[in-house]
Amino acid sequence: MSLIQEDMQQLLLNYCEPESVLLQKIDRETHLKVLMPRMLSGHYQGRVLSMLSKLVNPRRILEIGTFTGYATLCLAEGLTADGLIYTLDINEELEEMVRANFESSELKPKIKYLLGDAAETVPGLNETFDLVFIDADKKNNGTYYDLVFDKLRPGGLVIVDNVLWSGKVLNSSPDKDTKNITTFNDKIAADNRVEKLILPVRDGLFVIRKK
Fold it and tell me: How far apart are CA 126 and CA 77, in angstroms?
C-alpha cells in the first residue's frame, strides 16, 4: 500500500514522533483480530494526520470511517480544549473494540462515535467543521465531499485517504474501483472553490483547503 520503499519508510519513522503505547496496542490488535488490517492508518500516516490537525487546531473535526479508531485518536490530538471529533462508521461488528480503544484514551471525552450510514448521518450534524477526514467506502468519496462541503468553514481542510490507490491510478486500463478514485480526484482538481494537493503519504492523502 505504501508508495515509498521499505528502507526509506523506516528512515521516515526514525525521524518522526513515536506512537503512544495505546496506538501501538491498537495497531497490534487490529492486525491480529480484524480483517483487512491494512486499512489502519499506521504510525507514519497517523503522525501526519496528527500534525495537520495540530496546525489547524480545530474545534470540530468530522471523520467518516472510524475502522478501529487509530486515526480518530491521531486527529483528536490537535483539538482545542473544548473541541470534539465526530467519527462515523457503519460496521457494528467493530463497535466493542472501538469503544474499548476510546475508553483507554484520555481523549475519550472529546470523541463522539456514531454508528450508521454516513450519507444519512452527516446532514443531521448541526456543526461547522474545521477539519474533515474521509476514509470510508471509496466509491462514495464524492458524495461525502459534497455533503460536508457546506459544513466546512472557510480555511478548513478536507483530507481524503487512498487517492493514489497503490499506484493503480496510473494504469491505462483501470478497474472499476480505480476509476472511482480517479473520478473523485478529477472532481477535486476541477473544483475552483478549493486549493488542493496530494501528499504521497502511504496510499495518498488529498489535502483540500476551502477558500
Answer: 23
